[in-house]
Amino acid sequence: MNEPLLQVTDLKQYFPISRSYTVKAVNGVSFCIYPGETYGLVGESGSGKTTIGRSIIRLYTPTSGSVRFQGKEIGGRLDASTREMLRADMQMIFQDPMASLNPRKKVEDIIAEGLDIHHRAAGRQERSELVGELLKKVGLSPEHAERYPHQFSGGQRQRVGIARALIMNPKLIIADECISALDVSIQAQVVNLMKDIQEESGCAYLFIAHDLSMVKYISDRIGVLHLGYMVEAGTKEEIFSNPIHPYTRSLLSAIPYPNPEAEKRRVSLSYDYASSGIDYAKGTEHLVEGSHTVLATDDEFKAWAG
Amino acid sequence: MSAETILKISDLDISFRTNAGVVHAIRGVDMDLQKGETVAVVGESGSGKSVTMKAVMGLLDSNAVVNSGEILYRRPGDEDAQMIDLLKIGKKQLRQDINGQHIAMVFQDPMTSLDPTMPIGRQIMEGILLHKNVSQSEARRRALELLELVGINDAEKRFKNYPHQLSGGMRQRVVIAIALSADPDILICDEPTTALDVTIQAKILELIKSIQEKMKLSVIYITHDLGVVAKVADYVNVMYAGRIVEVGNVNEIFYEPCHPYTWGLLSAMPDINTDDDRLYSIPGSPPNLLHEPVGDAFADRNPFAMAIDKKAAPPMFKISETHFAATWLLHPDAPKVELPEELRHRIERARKEAEQYL
Fold first, then answer.
1. How distant is the alpha carbon of residue B135 from its chain centre?
2. In Å, how far from its chain's centre is CA A80?
3. pLDDT value at position B251?
């Protein structure tokens, strides 16, 4: 297989709260993303999925571990050219489109901010042409450039957020719960749009979400996170047809399906880390088959996979 | 009307005065709730599902105007008694006699609906002391019972905890315990699990269901998640732009949907079992109710819209004793429209899967 676009190795992200107490949000997570694919990160709140996204794009400085993006190390101190490359080629779409768009700026200025910072547009004319083109691409019209974020509906605002991420022609877009705040009928529109854009521009996505059915729909490969550990990873077929880890199993069984006769009789599996006797820190990565790996001790692995 | 009807909303019509103009949020809603059953109200944000339930609880904002309609409530076991119109009795009487004691509500975000400065035990006792004529120690005993009922282990220890010491799922359990503290007949759950993780969501839904059976509660769910509806509901009301567009029992809605909006909602859910390239999406966005929609409010987003949809709003057409839908497609003169193929396959698969459980 070709070179990975992003290679995360043993990433740790700790937040010291006081002298005696440190929150270990991410505990040695490794994965890689290849050009043009979609990697889904799922897990409950507090599992560290958002932290991973923010560490990779360097909103946080990783405590330890390596993050390589397009062959360059971006986990530590950044020199000017690496920073320039990182800031242009990796972009983020945030969860709440109202909170992540500056209410005092026009949509054109929000979208063109990247162009302004990196001096990519030759003049006003080219700038507004680029913005207009992009607005069309995300299903808005160029006239919307003159409006403010509050004049849009939730779905339209998220389209503006996507346009802002796309203006730099990034190689990797981190989408952090970017559809959770939207209505069901609008979610589908935005997800379809993201798929179309990927086909056209060949960018890769790191898709962070807690909604497993949507993750399955959009992702090629999936990593399941729990309490800062990557408990299971593999292609979506591997994860969904043959879940090994009890946490993944409980997560899959908790998805409600629009099928009342079956749903009324099904009881979801429960999983409680504290009482399960599993210690993630003791587990090592075990290969199931193909690219499917699970975090377990040797005994646990035998019990679950057997 | 059967004697078991404990809540009857008829022809409810509410608008809001805002700076931008009058927003006609509820445009004629009818709904029945029978004793012991679960009704789900499904719709997008802005469809009016929360406003309808706020009207029942007397929690409407001060800029709301009730143009017409009535919300009738009858105490169970009291069949001769007149039904009380909750919109007519004063706010004070509503708070004293109805809220909490008869109709209780669970809100979306447990962190904002709990008092951060009061231990959870006291918060549960508050309702008991207010509504029931009991001593402190009796109230404490009942509060402990409730904590155990909602599945909180070592209730004695948790009694003195503050909300911030609990996880999101535990907090929602406490909110449910508070709602149950004065033995209500009706429990209204407004998106009770939207702020929670899927694994915890499943547990909370199973909890509400088991409590409902134990206490013979009637439950109204407000949600936008059709998966949740399938799990809990007996009857489903699909709301769109301030109107109920389809109503039926849960099997009718999921296996024989008749309204194009319901079709759209069902198709837009990603299906775990297929690998379609594209997700079906309902085009456009919901109408702005600042401008009164002419004809069918859904017409602009409806691929099956006909000329009449732009002129007149469709009435409720009867499909079976329990199943009604407001779409002109059901008119005898309308052309025959088949279910979208993709959805038909999906329903067939769902039926097959359901047979395994029978």
1. 35
2. 26
3. 93
Closest chain A residue by Cα to residue B354: A262
Residues of B in contact with A253 (CB under 8 A): 202
Q: Give strand pairing partners of A6.
A: A33, A69
Is B270 close to A213, i.e. CB distance below 8 A? yes
Partner B, chain A 215-254, Cβ-Cβ below 8 Å: 216-217, 240, 250-251, 253-254
Domains and CATH numbers, chain B: 5-233 (3.40.50.300), 239-357 (3.40.50.300)
The Cα–Cα gap between B247 and B235 comes to 7
Q: By the 8 A CB rule, do A134 and A159 touch? A: no
Determine contact, residues B121/B140, Cβ cutoff 8 Å.
yes
**A232 backbone dihedrals φ, ψ, rounded to 5°:** -155, 140
Segment holding A224, helix H or strand E: strand A221-226
At B274 the pLDDT is 64
CB A138 within 8 A of CB A196: no
Q: Does A261 contact chain B (CB < 8 Å)?
A: yes
Question: Using CA atoms, how far apart are residues B130 and B138, in angstroms rounded to an integer?
Answer: 13
What is the rounded CA–CA span in Å between residue A193 and residue A52? 24
How many C-alpha atoms does A50 have within 13 Å on its Cβ side? 10
- Model ipTM value: 0.79
Nearest CA in chain A to B249: A260
* Structural element, H or E, at residue B10: strand B5-18
Helical (H) or strand (E) element with B265: helix B260-268
Kind of pairing, strands B103-106 and B186-190?
Answer: parallel
β-pairing, B64-73 vs A229-235, is unpaired
Rounded CA gap, A128 and A142, in Å?
Answer: 9
Contact criterion met (CB below 8 Å) for B242 and B47: yes
Q: What is the pTM of this model?
A: 0.86
Q: Is the pLDDT of residue B3 over 60?
A: no
Q: How many CB atoms lie within 10 A of CB B104?
A: 24
**In Å, how far are B53, B210, B254, B288, B315 from B246, measured between CA atoms?**
18, 28, 11, 20, 11
- Rg, chain B, Cα only: 21
CB-based contacts of B125: which residues, under 8 Å, 6+ apart?
B136, B139, B140, B142, B143, B181
Coil, strand or helix at A39: strand
Structural domains for chain A: 6-305 (3.40.50.300)
- CB atoms < 10 A from the CB of B127, how many? 24
Mean predicted confidence (pLDDT) in A67-82: 92
Centre a 10 Å sphere on the Cβ of residue B115 and count the other Cβ atoms it contains.
Answer: 12
